[in-house]
Amino acid sequence: MKRTTVKLPETLDAILRHEAELRGVPIAVVTRQALEAYFKAATPRQLLAAGTGHSGASDVAERIEEILSSEIAR
Question: Domain map of the chain by residue range?
């Protein structure tokens, strides 16, 4: 697992600490579970830029100089 530092308002920190104490688990467990629940419930987001500029051409990498030259000439 990766360690991450998060700055929280005092009220949210108190809620996390209280919940962790009630459950008898570390604050990290409550935080992880809350984040997992939030992102599972969130509507799946599409990458808005995904597919932008998709030309359907499979040879763009080989023709990049030609393509750039023709675009610059416009």
Answer: 8-43
